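DUF4262 domain-containing protein: C-alpha cells wanted.
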Amino acid sequence: MVQSLENNITQYGLQVQHVLEDELGPGFSYSVGLFKSYGHAEIIIVGLKQNLAHTLINNMANDIKEGKVFAALTYEEDIIDDFNCYIIEVDKENYDSYVGQAQNYYGGDDFPLIQCIYPTVQGIYPWEDKWPKEIKDLQPILGSINI
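Answer:
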C-alpha cells in the first residue's frame, strides 16, 4: 500500500483515497500528495459515489497542475457542471476521523486540507434551511463556512 501510494504520487502527483460509508458516517474521498507535489492543499469530498468523487478530485488536480489554486471560502463554478461548489478549510480536529492516510504520509497534521462542498440538484447547500432532512448527514461540514 505504501509503495503504491508513493508510486502514484510520483507518477500522477497524487493518489485518491476512498473510505466507504459505515455506521459512523457517509463515504468520502480525499487526495494525498497534492501538497507535496504542488504546494496545494489536499482535497476531501464527502458523500458522493467513489467514481464521481475520484473524477472530481482528479479534475481539480489537473487544474492545480496548470496553476489553479482552490482557495477557502470561495465558490468554484468549474468543478461540477452547472453548479457552484464551495471550498472551505478543514479544521485540524477533523483530520484524525477523515484523512489517516494523508497523516501517515506527511507524518502528522502539518498539511492543509480543503473540503469541496456541493449543493443538491436544486442548488441548496448543507447549511441552508431548505437542505433536505433525509440527507442531512450526507455531507458534514468539516470547517468554518463563514457565509
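The helical segments are 2-12, 34-38, 50-65, 95-98, 100-106. The CA atoms of residues 109 and 145 lie 21 Å apart.

Cheers.
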